[in-house]
Please model this.
Amino acid sequence: DAGVIQSPRHEVTEMGQEVTLRCKPISGHDYLFWYRQTMMRGLELLIYFNNNVPIDDSGMPEDRFSAKMPNASFSTLKIQPSEPRDSAVYFCASTRNPGTSSYEQYFGPGTRLTVT
Amino acid sequence: GDSVTQMEGPVTLSEEAFLTINCTYTATGYPSLFWYVQYPGEGLQLLLKATKADDKGSNKGFEATYRKETTSFHLEKGSVQVSDSAVYFCALSTMNTGFQKLVFGTGTRLLVSP
Model:
C-alpha cells in the first residue's frame, strides 16, 4: 500500500491568499484526521471524519478553516484567507476502527505551510 | 479532560547510552497507551503500544510498561543508535462511547551523537 498521501509537501503563500491542502487516505480506512503541528502548541487535532462525514471539528481554530471529504479517497483542508500564524506542518492520518481503543493511526508525510 | 505529559527535550545522548523518556497521563477512562516516533521530514509512526495495566509494549529495542498505579508509560532503550534521533510522542486513547480520538503529548526530541 502507498500509505497516506498528502500534497503539496511544501506551500509558501502570501497573507490573504487561499490555501488548499490535500489528502488521500489508505484504501479501506474509514476514519480520516487532520492535525496541525507547531513548536508552540505541539500536535493538535483539527477535525476528523468517519465514512466521509465530519464527526468532531472542535479543534478547527476559526471560520477561516474548513475541511471536506467528498469521497472515501480524498479530503481537503482549506484556509481562506491565510494568515502568518497559520504557518505550521499539517498532517493527515487515517485508520480503520477495530472497535477497540488500541487502534493505530497512519500518518502522511505532512504539508509544511509558510504564510508570509 | 484526558492529557499526556512528557519530559522536556531535547535529550542528548552518545551512541550506546541508555535512554529513558518519561510520560505520565491523566484519563477518566481506562486508556490504551502509545509511543509514536517522528523521524526528520516524516509523519508520525507507531513505535509501540500497551492496552492494559502491566502490559509491556516493545519494538526495535524500545520498551514501555503500562503502570496504572503511577499513571506512567516511560519509554526505554538499553543502547541507542544515531538512527534513533527523532521526536518521540506519548499518546493515549480511551473508549468511552464509540470511537475516541488520540491525545498526544508535546513530544520529546532525542539527539544521539556518534
User: Anything to note?
Assistant: The interface with chain A takes residues 31-32, 34, 41-46, 49, 51, 89, 93-95, 99-102, 104-107 of chain B (CB under 8 Å). The mean pLDDT of chain B is 92. DSSP finds no helices and twelve strands in chain B.
